[in-house]
Amino acid sequence: MRLWATLILVLLASGAGAEQTSLIARLQDNDLYERGTNCQGAYYRFSNNQMILFGGDEPQVYSPDITLVQKENSVVVTDHSPGKFTLNSVFAFSGDQKFVTYADFYYDPEPTEQQWRQMDMKVGDAKAEFQAYRDSLKGMPQMEVCPRKHAS
After folding, report:
1. Cβ proximity of 31 and 53 under 8 Å
2. 51: closest CA among 88, 10, 84?
3. pLDDT for residue 3 is more than 50
4. Which residues form the signal peptide (predicted)?
5. H-helix or E-strand containing 118?
6. What is the pLDDT of residues 70-102, one digit of tens each?
7. Contact, 88 vs 108, CB < 8 A?
8. Cβ count near 132 (within 10 Å)
9. Mutual orientation of helices 113-123 and 126-137 as an angle, nearest 10°?
């Protein structure tokens, strides 16, 4: 489930207009379940600038300060948690807007080689670990956009 949380964290884009807000509204007005679960079980919700996982004993806030921005048929979730870099997750909507697919995960700004070396001192081969994690997320199953069943 933690991979899903990270996966959901970053749906970003730019622009304005009715079409642009429609995908963001779909995320904010609905819940996301793993595809094939018939909208049952654990789910993610975007509410009050937070991404929250429901499904355990208590809801878990995975990101306490996010923004959603639409670009074309995708939404980028930007995590503004404290630190030098923001994390962005990009999710693409299916043509019928019923499913969301993980598309990308990246830092902004991209760390310099010197910054990667500094991170290496704390966590080992940070750049390789980040790339391996990023690649693993691309194999995640789609999420289904489902009507909300429960109040926040």
Report:
1. no
2. 10
3. no
4. 1-18
5. helix 113-123
6. 999 999 999 987 777 888 999 899 999 999 998
7. yes
8. 10
9. 90
Cβ-based neighbours of 77, under 8 Å, separated by 6 or more = 8, 9, 10, 11, 12, 46, 51, 63, 66, 67, 68, 88, 89, 90, 91
Give buried/exposed letters for 67-105 (b at 16+ CB in 10 A, else e).
bbbbeeebbbbbbeeeeeebbbbbbbbeeeeebbbbbbb
Whether residue 27 has pLDDT greater than 80: yes
Query: Listing from the earlier edge strand, what are the strands of the sheet with 60-63?
Result: 60-63, 50-54, 43-47, 30-34, 143-147, 99-108, 86-93, 74-79, 66-71
pLDDT in tens, 102-133: 888 899 899 999 999 998 898 889 999 999 98
Residue % of the chain over a pLDDT of 90: 55
On average, the pLDDT of the chain sits at 84
Q: How far apart are the first and last CA of the chain?
A: 20
